[in-house]
Amino acid sequence: MYGDAADKLVADAKRSTQLTHLPLYQGELIQNIINETNDLQAEVEHLTNEEIVSQTQSQGDRTNQCQLFISHLAMRRNKRCLLAYQRYRAERLQYMSWLNNTTGITVDEPGAAPSGKAADSLNHNEEEYLKKYNELIINYNKEFNESLDLTGDIEPPKDIFIDVRVLKDVGEITTEYGVFNLTKDSQFFVRYNDVARLIQQGYLQRL
Amino acid sequence: MYILPSNYNQAYNHIVTTSLTHSTCKLVIFVSCLDVDALCALRILAAVFKKKLINFQIVPIVGYADLATHYTRLDADVNNIILVGCGAMVDLESFLDIDVGQFVDATRSLEAETVLKRKIFVIDGHRPWNLDNVFGSAMVTCFDDGLIGDLALEKDAYNFLVNIDDDELNQEEEEEEEEEEEEEIFEIDETDISRKRKSSSSSPQTKQPKTRKRVIKDNETTIENYYGQGTTVVTSVTSQVYSLVSLIGETNNLDNLWLAIIGSTSLEHQYPELWARLADLFRKEVRRLNHGADEERTADDSRLTVEKDYNLFLLRHWSLYNAFYYSNYINSKILLYTEQGKSKLNKIFAKMGISLSVAQQLWIYMDIGIKKKLHNIFTKVLVNQYGFDSLATEGYFRSFGYNGSVSARDCVEAISSLLEHEENSAPSESDDIDALTAEKEKLWVANFWRSWDALTDLAKIRQGIQLALFSQQLIFQVGHSIIEKKQLKNLKIFRLVVLSSSDYHLSLTAKNDASIHTNTAAGGRKFFLNPLNLMKLGNWLLDTISEVDDTLLPLVLAALDLETDTYLVIGMAPKVPKRGDGGSAALLNTFSVAFQHVANTTGVKVRIDSFESSVIEVRKDDLAPFLEKLTLSGLV
C-alpha cells in the first residue's frame, strides 16, 4: 500500500521519543519512501500523458482522474512524513547540543560518551547540521561571554552540595578549587557547581 | 593504634578538621559490599558528614583484592580513609603496601611525635583483630569495642616480639659472614590474615640463654593462640557508629537510630548474644526519642515503636500459615521437612482455633478479631503446650505515616534480599574466570546502591520483601531436599553439604508479581553462588540440625558455579539450639584458620578474598583433595 513505509517511519520516530538516546538514522526506510514517491511520480507523468488524457476524456471516464488524485495525496503524505521525521531528529540534535555545548559533538571526538553514542547513529548531513548548530550556539554565547552562561542549568540549585553516583569513569576533573578523581561505582558528596556539567552529560547520576 | 569507645569523638574531630576543604575530596570511605550492617552504618556516617559539608567519596568494595586496587588508585591528597565493616583482620599497612614515611607531615611534626598526613580508621566487628593494626601501626586507628583492654597479654607478647624481631634481625646481619643461619622471624604474608612462621632451624650457638628462647616461644604461642581461636563478629558496626554519633550529639533524630537498629538486627540471627547485648540500649533510646510523641496517627508520622514480634517469617507480608511454615524457628522445632512435621503444623493451627482457610488468607485481609487475640493464643497454645518459649520477642517498628509501618526484622530481610538478588543476570559469553568474577562483583556493587536507595524508600523496601519471600521459599525447598536426599554428610569433624547445580531446580509457583523478575527464578541456578544466600541456607541447616543432633559439629557448604568451574565454599560454626533465654554464646568459627592452613600447606588453588574469612572459592577439581586435607588437618 502506498504510504506504509512512511507510516512506519513516523511510528518509529514516535517510539524513539521515549528513548534516552537517538536511535540509528533510518536510511534504508527513507530510501524506500523516496523510491515509492518516484514511482508515483512516474505514474502521474504517465497519466498526464496527453494521449491518454484525451482518450479518456472523450469517453467520459473519470477513473484516471481519480487515480491521479490519489497518487498526489500519497506523494504529499510521504513528503510530510519525511519532513516530520527530519524535524524530530533535528530537534533532538538541537536539544543535545544545548546540553553538551562545551564538549561539542563531533564524530571524531569519542571522548563525549552520550554524544558519542548519538554520533554513531547520525547520517552525515545530520552531523554537518549538528556541527553548524554547535558553532551557532558558541558564537551566540560569545556575546554574553562573561556575564552569562546560556548553557547552564535553568533550574536554580537547591543545595550547594549534592550526592552523586559515578556511572562512568571520568578520570580527573579540575574544579574551581582543586582536582577530583571520579572513579566508577562510587558515590560522592560534592559541590553542585563542580559536577553540574557532568550530570548533564550523563557521567554522574544525581541522587 | 586503637581508640576507646569514649573517645570516638576525637577520631571524628580529627576527620572533620583534616577533611574540611572544598577544594577536593579528602575523605574516602570504603565499605564492605555484601553487608547490611555496614550499609546502615555508612548511611549514618554519610548523614553526619553531610551536615558538616564535608566532601567525601564512598566506594563499595567486594573483597580484599578490590580494596587493594581501589586503595592504590586514591589521590595523593586523601587525608582520611574509613573502612566500614572490613579491614580489622588484615595487617593493613603491609597489605596495602603503605610506606608510612611518605605520609609524615613535616610541617606539623614535632621532634617527639610525628604527625601523619593520612590516617586509616577501621570500624569493623570482625575478630580477631590483626594486632599490627591495634598495637603496631601509627597510621591505622581501630575503633575499639571496649574489648581491646582484655588483650593485655597479647599486647605484651606483641610488643616483646616486635622488639625481639628487630634485635635478632640486626644480629643476623652481623653474623652473616660468619655462618649462615636463620633466626625465627615473623613474616607477614600479604594475602594472609594470620601470621605464620618461616622455617626455623635452631641456632647452633648456645650462647643465648635458653630462658630467653622460651620466653620468645611463650609469646609466640600467645599470639598464635589469639589468631587461632577462630573468627566471629563481636559487635555491630552500626552500634559503634551510633555511639560515635551519640558522642557528638547527633542522636536527636530517629533516622540514625532506625538505621542502627536495622544494622544490628541483621546480625541477630547469626550472633544472638550480640543482639541481646544491644537490644537493651536500643530500647532505651527508642523510649527517649519517643518521649512526648503524639499517639495520634498523622501523615508525616515516622515514629519508632517497640512492639511484640514473633519468630515467624515476614508475618505481615503474607499469610499466617506461610509465616509459620517458612519460619526457621518453627521449622527446626517441629521438623517440618517430615510428613509428621507438616501434619503437626496443621494440628497446631487446630489447637489455636484458627481454621486453615483463615490462616492462608493474606495477613492484611485476615479477621481483625483473630489478629487481636493472636498474642494470647500464641502464649496459651504455643508457649505453654508446645514449649516454643522464644517464639515471642520484641520487634522495632517504624511507621511511615499513612503508608503503614515496617519492622526492623522485615526491613533486614528486604535489604539483604536486595543485596543478594542479581537483577538482569544475562548469561555472559565470556568464559574467562576473571572476567566472570569481575562481572559478578559488578552486580554486587550495583545491588549495593540499590539497597542504599531502598533504605529510605518504603516502596523499594516492599519490593525487597517480595524478593525475601521468594528466597526464603527457595531456601526451604533446597533445604528440605538436602535432608530428604540425605546430602548432608556427617564427617568426623564437620558436616558437609555439596550442592551441584542440578540440585536446585525451581518448582516454585511463579508469582504474578512484577517485582520478581522471571530471570530471578532462572537465576536460581546462581542463587547460592552469592555468599549471603549460601550462608542463609547454612543457617537454616544449622538451625534444623541443632534440634535433632546434639553434637556440635561445624558445617561446610559448597556450591558449584558451572560457569567458572569453581566451588564457593563456606564454613560455619555450629549452633546451640534456641532456648528460652536465648543467651548462649555463639561458638567461634574456626574455618578461617583451617582454610588458610590447608590452602598454604597443599597445592590446592584457593581464592580467599571475602571479608568473611570463612568464605572461599576452590577450583572444581580441587574440592575433593581440599576437603580431605581439611579433615586430616584436624584444625576445625
In short:
Chain A has 207 residues and is mostly helical.
Largest interface, counted by CB within 8 Å of the partner chain's CB? A-B, 19 and 26 residues
Q: Fill in the CATH topology of the domain at 2-147 in chain B.
A: Rossmann fold
The percentage helix of chain A is: 55-70%
CATH class (first level) name of the largest domain in chain A:
Mainly Alpha
The coarse overall form of chain B would be globular
Characterize the largest beta sheet of chain B: strand count, sense, and whether it forms a barrel. Answer: 6 strands, parallel
Strand order of the largest sheet of chain B: 1-7-5-4-2-3
What count of helical segments of chain A does DSSP give? 7
Any low-confidence stretches of chain A, pLDDT <50, length ≥5?
101-117
The number of E-state strands of chain B comes to 19
Strand runs of chain A, count:
5
Q: What form of chain A results from the Cα inertia axes?
A: elongated
| pLDDT averaged residue by residue of chain A | 79
State the name of the first-level CATH class of the domain at 2-147 in chain B: Alpha Beta
Describe the protein in words.
The complex is a heterodimer of chains A (207) and B (636). By secondary structure, chain A is mainly α. Chain A folds into two domains: 4-139, Methane Monooxygenase Hydroxylase, Chain G, domain 1; 161-206. Chain A is 57% helix and 11% strand. Chain A has seven helices and five strands. Chain A has helices spanning 4-16, 27-47, 50-59, 63-99, 113-120, 124-142, 192-201, and strands at residues 161-166, 171-174, 179-182, 187-191, 204-206. A three-stranded antiparallel sheet of chain A has the order 4-1-5, covered by helices on one side. In chain A, strands 2-3 form a two-stranded antiparallel ribbon. In chain A, helix 1 (4-16) packs antiparallel against helix 2 and helix 4 crosses helix 6 (124-142). The longest helix of chain A is centred in the middle third of the chain and has 37 residues, at 63-99. Chain A is elongated. Chain A starts with a helix and ends with a strand. The model of chain A is unreliable at 101-117 (pLDDT under 50). Chain B has a domain at 2-147: Rossmann fold. Chain B is 46% helix and 13% strand. Chain B is α/β, with parallel strands linked by helices and 636 residues long. Chain B has a six-stranded parallel sheet with strand order 1-7-5-4-2-3, with helices on both faces. A six-stranded mixed sheet of chain B has the order 14-15-16-17-19-18, sandwiched between helices. In chain B, strands 11-12-13 form a three-stranded antiparallel sheet, with helices on both faces. In chain B, helix 2 packs parallel to helix 8 (237-247), helix 8 (237-247) runs antiparallel to helix 9 and helix 22 (591-601) crosses helix 23. The chains are: A mainly alpha (207), B alpha/beta (636). Chain A binds chain B through residues 160-161, 163, 165, 175, 177-181, 183, 185-191, 207, and chain B through 21-25, 46, 49-50, 53-60, 70, 73-75, 442, 445-446, 449, 452-453.
